[in-house]
Design brief:
disordered N terminus, seven-stranded parallel beta sheet, 308 residues, alpha/beta, globular, 12% strand, Rossmann fold
């Protein structure tokens, strides 16, 4: 048989070969017009590493002034450096989003640096997560994940809205969710519960704040490996071979693909889209098999011994 351009063998004449979803445009390409966010400030929590940094980078490429928030100094430095390399003005602010007073100070700092009004766009990317069987999840572990992922997202949304409502200005919020908000997440009970709350919060706030010009949406990333993945999650992935072949798209996602989706939702071209949760995962969360595979416990999937 002849081989296709992807290197896979072609089937019989006229039959479809499994080639998967094509890869994305190169890093640095933009779907929106150059300068689409010029003159605007975009605040990204957890924007110093991983997917948050990738999202922030796409806003920076389009001309936005960037505010990067994180609890860790090394993450702030990494985010500020990446934005500066793209030619963006950038402000890095230490902030624990569990504390509403620190969030208020974050918005104050953004206003002092980039103008008296609030940022035009808020991306709530900061979250906490780690794999653990539910019966081994400590009260502190549960509280930490829910407090950062759900409470912190709400506190940031509230501060953003309060300032826009007071100023009479429009704005856009993009929350970062997870597909197990719909399905549940064995091994991630704390994060799944928190992300379900984020999804519901998105839908609620979109209705409340739409009359005042504030759009609220949620983005759900699929598997998008990156160098900043938490060690425990990276270790889980390392136990799976051929990650591309395990996706319906026959490839994993690229972090910039999440960034492109975020810039569109926050742009003038996405203004009538609000209260939406958009999944960017190549249909992976919807996959089903005709016959179920044998059940494997969460502990086995994590490489942990069974109890007893």
């Amino acid at each position: 048989m002849a081989k296709s351009e992807t290197g896979r063998e072609a089937g019989a004449a006229g039959s479809a070969a499994a080639v998967g979803i094509p890869g994305p445009p190169a890093e640095g390409e933009t779907a929106l017009k150059p300068g689409a966010f010029a003159g605007q400030t975009v605040l990204v929590t957890g924007g110093g590493t991983g997917l948050g940094k990738a999202v922030a980078a796409e806003f920076a490429r389009l001309g936005a002034a960037m505010v990067i928030a994180s609890r860790r100094a090394e993450h702030l430095a990494a985010g500020a450096s990446a934005m500066a390399e793209l030619g963006a003005e950038v402000l890095a602010v230490a902030c624990d989003i569990r504390d509403p007073e620190q969030i208020e100070a974050l918005f104050d700092a953004a206003g002092e640096r980039f103008g008296p009004g609030p940022p035009a766009v808020l991306v709530n990317n900061a979250a906490a997560n780690f794999p653990v069987p539910a019966d081994e999840l400590s009260p502190n572990g549960w509280r930490a994940v829910v407090d950062i992922t759900l409470n912190g997202t709400f506190f940031c949304c509230r501060e953003f809205a309060r300032r826009h409502l007071a100023a009479g200005t429009a704005g856009s919020i993009v929350n970062i969710g997870a597909s197990y908000a719909w399905t549940g997440g064995p091994g991630f009970a704390h994060s799944a519960a928190a992300k379900a709350g984020v999804k519901s919060l998105t839908e609620t706030l979109a209705v409340e704040w739409g009359p005042y010009g504030i759009g609220v949406n949620c983005l759900v990333p699929g598997l998008m490996p990156h160098e900043d993945m938490p060690e425990a999650i990276a270790a889980n992935l390392s136990r799976s071979q051929e990650l591309d072949a395990r996706q319906p798209a026959l490839r994993v996602g690229h972090p910039r693909e999440l960034g492109w989706a975020a810039t569109f939702l926050a742009s003038p071209y996405g203004r009538f889209i609000t209260g939406c949760t958009l999944v960017v995962d190549g249909a992976n969360w919807q996959r089903r098999t005709l016959t179920n595979p044998p059940t494997e416990t969460v502990r086995a999937q994590m490489g942990r011994p069974e109890p007893g």
